[in-house]
């Protein structure tokens, strides 16, 4: 103890002083009962201040709590101090402060004359309240000191060692109460943490795809998680023992029971995939596994297991297996060879088909040199170009090439089609995989087909040439016959027949000269046909204007449309006159009103059509041909008089095969 005056150690204090000490003991007992009943730390601290002030008959008391970071003591609780100071006011915690000295040394401090104190400075808080004397003791239970308990007085007088004993006893009781409150708070915290952990564990169990269960040493199920029972619709009584087997698919039941009994007999882990019946009657794939837990003697005490829903994974695996099976069947059916080239290590894997194409053994190692040496010299450039394309990081990594392979075993030449896909990493090619197919049969067949088509095309051209020559000969004979007869009517009939024959001959000439045997470029054909008809009918000086666009027409449409044009032009040359002089004739071939169609117009500046003209009622062969051929073309024919003369318009769609 540190005090200003010698301690009063009289063994027999006066009677009033004895009563005062007994009263102090009663106050400590009262505080002890209060602390036992109260669970609020602040209330306990406040009550300690009140007891200290009452016991020492002073106007001020306080509990000071250390603030290590500030090297100060906080006025945590108190009595007698001005409002607003408790919880905020601070005093020094250094050795020059009475309270700081008591806290740091653990020794009680008595200052009976603060104004004359030489050992310590007087804290401003106490000077502002006119405190003249003070006594300080440390508050400490079993752990770290909590702070300082101090009593202060404005009255003159002196604190003595008996006051120290009272105040220290009160501080010790307060320390025990603080320890109790801290323990209670810690218990509450631990209880809260435990509740949180239990809730966390419960949520983890509920949300975990693993559904736990347990069995005894004999393998009898003794515990199932509620989720498993909810999923299967079984009760715990139903599932106990071997009752769980009722939820297993009949096809999986025997294997599941056999695997479980084997695990029990051997003490090894249990792991099986099985279908489990759900409460709605559906079956889902689940994986069940368990491990034994051994007691101190090494014997199996319990089995702890879990079941996991793997239905989606199982279906995906089955789908992948089916896909791989279909792929394998497709690869076999298409006779595809598979290769895998690790571009980092240079390792190449070939299956049996590629090895057979290159003519190398099943166990012989392969390299890029093996591959390149088998390529036909004339196809090396094409192969390298395809490979460069596949390995280009700027491309899509795909490649396709067709080249010849010279089999090493027998030097036979095989045509192959190769398709590859490159994988890139950090802008570099790292892997090339693909397929190779022997297409020798297809290439040979295609070459034969090309030759056959070429022969066929040549034959068709020769036929068209011969037909054209034959028709031209017939046309020439008709013109000779025309010149030989004297009847005007006969001459006209022979001239018209000759014109029709020439129209068909021109079609075959077009086919003979065309690169395509199925279509005719009708615009050019119409130009030449007009010239032929004008010459054939002796109208070489006729004023005929032709406007014809370039259009390819199928032969089945070009021939009847050519005959219609021939009849319309012949009719105009014969009848479109004013007196004996021929009049201008316009021939136009262009697009129709609808997309993909065409329009043929033949107009003249003649006398026009007679009133009430109807093509279908005309008796002449020419008009009947026009009507019939237009019907064959699904075309419409319109005959009208314009301000200049007669106009015939034929409109139709281009029909594709």
From TrEMBL:
Please list the reactions this protein catalyses.
ATP + protein L-histidine = ADP + protein N-phospho-L-histidine
Name of one Pfam family that matches: HATPase_c
The residue ranges of the PAC domain are 270-322, 399-451
Entry-linked CDD domains: PAS
Give the matching PROSITE patterns. Answer: HIS_KIN, PAC, PAS
Q: Which PANTHER family match?
A: PAC DOMAIN-CONTAINING PROTEIN, PHYTOCHROME-LIKE PROTEIN CPH1
Please identify the protein, giving its name as recorded.
histidine kinase
Organism expressing this protein natively: Paracoccus fontiphilus
